[in-house]
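Workshop exercise sheet. Pairs work together: one partner reads the sequence aloud, the other fills in the structure field after running the prediction. Swap roles for the next sheet.
Pair: D.N. / O.F.
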Amino acid sequence: MAASTTSRAIKNPKTRFNWRVSDWLRWTLSHWLELRAKITGRKYYCHSLAGLSDYDLAINSDLTVSCNCQDYDGSGHIGDLRKNSFEEIFYGPIAQKYRDDLAKGKIPIPTCARCGALRYLKKNEPPPKPRLPYRGILLENTVICNVDCVGCAREGAANVRTKKTMPLAELTQMAELTARLGMERIFYLCLGEPFLSPTICLELPLLRAKNPHAYIRVSTNGVLLNTDAKREAALQLSDIQFSVHGISDAMCAKYMLRGSFEKAFDAMKQMVAYRDARGLKMPILEWKYLLFNWNDHPKSIQRAMEMAKGIGVDIISFWPTGNPFYGISWRYRLGLMNHIGRESWKGREVILRPDNAAAAR
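Structure field:
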């Protein structure tokens, strides 16, 4: 199988190799799922395109709409908000074709094969009738990032986007759209670093003003959440997840190239202090720790929990991942970390400040 547009667009050899393998896995799994549907008679539907997902559906920085949060090559584009309304896109021909293909046991795009929104139907069960989404959506203010993660094919997505950063006027329109749809959750993130946007200090208050009751989450590598102006804007959020995958620069650099553990850790510490000095419990501040076989040693995990408690974050969570494929944490997969914290949709999480973390969802 030829390398995909995604893997060809990636410059870093290590990342490119990982995504060539990932492309092959998706292609293979897609064909297996189609064969399985033929054998069992059980077809599929998309939780996202049914309008029932908390996550997955994404508005990209160039106002294209993707059916999934991993749309690195544009194959998941279902429309363009510069040309059509959200309703026209969601009920439009591309989205409907994807629904129809799944209902026939076909996998419309390879990304479906490893997407959490893919759902099985019982034999002869009809797919749910689609409704406009309300539970959650991703909103990408920029596809540009200051770091290069081995498990992220963002370079491919950046080549597909016709606009790398969403202007404030368009962000205003998208904030109004999420309000009109009654979105319960807004994930202000996708394939870029949200705090890299030059207007981030205006964006977050605007998004909150338009969506006063929404749960708004940002995921950041933390390095650029580094000024009081940005921290003040970040107080408008419900939840900030700091993606810091290790306890040293050397450990983090195996996955997150051009990052800085020291700067990210200091950003967490400063954000906690800034929030606490104002007597606030929100935003929830979480250390998001992706698990790999180079950062999952019990001593490293114990030290991370001690460091998290020391700076006062509310939660530290440990997330299993299969990307890159050679970095899988077998300690987690074999259940050797089941004693840590509690099980959650993330993997394992340790609640350090229960009074604050109670608001997380």
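Discussion prompt: The CA atoms of residues 78 and 94 lie 5 Å apart. What would you look at next?
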